[in-house]
Write a structure and sequence with these properties.
It is a single chain. The protein is an all-alpha fold. Helices cover about 70% and strands about 0% of the residues. The protein is built from 18 helices and no strands. α4 runs parallel beside α18 and α7 runs antiparallel to α8. It starts with 13 loop residues before the first helix and ends in a 12-residue tail after the last helix. About 50% of the residues are buried.
Length: about 350
Amino acid sequence: MTTTPSISLDQGGAAHAAPPEAIDTAAASAPAVGSGVGDYIALMKPRVMALVVFTGLAGLVAAPVAMNPLSAAIAILCIAVGAGAAGAFNMAYDADIDAVMKRTRRRPVPTGRVPRPEAYTFAGVMSLASVLLMGMATNYVAAGLLAFSIAFYCVIYTMWLKRLTPQNIVIGGAAGAFPPVIGWAAATGSVSVDAVILFAIIFLWTPPHSWALALYKSGDYAAAGVPMMPVARGAKSTRIQILVYTGLYLAATAGPLVTGLGGWMYAIAAGLGGALFALLALRVHASRAGDMPGAEDALYAVRAGDKSARDLFAYSIAHLALLFAALLAEHGAGVHWPLPGGAG
């Protein structure tokens, strides 16, 4: 059962009330503060980059082909730079939204520390450099996947889906699922079933992760006119969908055990870690998280009724990192012991 949408995108939200030109004008009239190196690092969303790099490295190391260390290092650098470029484009395009939301209003573009044209140029140059270097250092399959993932995030998610539909992060989450596939392709020159499974794990992890955050920041999204699931369909519907996608995500985490890609270490991370994930998702479902729109400034700041959503959001990051850390350790440190009956 769904609830009536609480906003009308046709009639405005701040995203429509503050067009891109207004942001450029505001930035141009703001006191000149100059752009520092730190602003350009922030533009690349370093926290997101860290998880992207980690999953990309795990895909590269878990692939069944040993890679030249220098080429491997360049491949990971390209994945990092490509992800950062996509993040910079997102910040430039969404400056009108970021200026409204408490959590993002201090970002470099809405504050004028990095002018919008410079952010676009920076994103374009970094995108081109990362793809070309990936092609020269590894192979065209990896370079093509990197180019597609950047374009998908910038065009399909940022420019189209984000402001259009509450399914924005479900479909757009594909962009964040590419790094292990790119790492795998950099090592092997191809995409196998195991690489697709790694893609599916991240793809199905994204909805419960993102919607948990959206539950306790729904006031921010509503103010900006972004149709995240709690804003467009209500908190109760979002809590139900978090539970459904948690089941799909945990089912996908069993994939590496079936194919033999994951061994005992991965099995423990998927089993025990997955059980805790399920408990936290059930706790969110049983709670009233998101019923009162929240919009505290800090990422983890939350009102009392929304703690279950905050806990799931935080743990979801840890669980995904744990899964890929297990794969990294098993294949990188030579401690991969397949389960009895596994294909490996």
